[in-house]
Amino acid sequence: MPRILMIEDDPDTGDSIKAMLEISGHEVHWARHGREAMTLLQQEGRPDVILTDILMPEMDGIESILYIRKHHPGLVVVAMTAQRDAPFLRAAALFGAQATLFKPFSISELNQVLNKVLGIETPGPEA
Predict the structure, then answer these.
(1) In DSSP terms, which residues pair with 53 in a beta bridge?
(2) For residue 42, what is the enclosing H or E element?
(3) Residue of 32, 69, 71, 100 with fewest CB within 10 Å of its CB?
(4) Structural domains of the chain, with CATH
């Protein structure tokens, strides 16, 4: 079961994403901002993926990605935001996120991105 560290400050959004991840069979640890995530990384050990929002208090997603790249360089990071008209996801990718998602997203979109970054093969359509 893949372990996901989700960094999301909005309780409703976090509840929804956590439910999608758990339905898909992931173990989820939830941090409300980047500083809390860094503490969880030390306490809970290395997750398979970090799924981080971009706009958050105390330590935002870009700062979190930079910290992760410096202190945990091999960790897979997926960045997400609801801000479609801002360059946040492009910046996240430039700073080291392996994938990005615009919120809201469906469970199938989430699973597609996670399968890609985790290297999990998904069955293709039959010919």
Answers:
(1) 80
(2) helix 34-44
(3) 71
(4) 3-117 (3.40.50.2300)
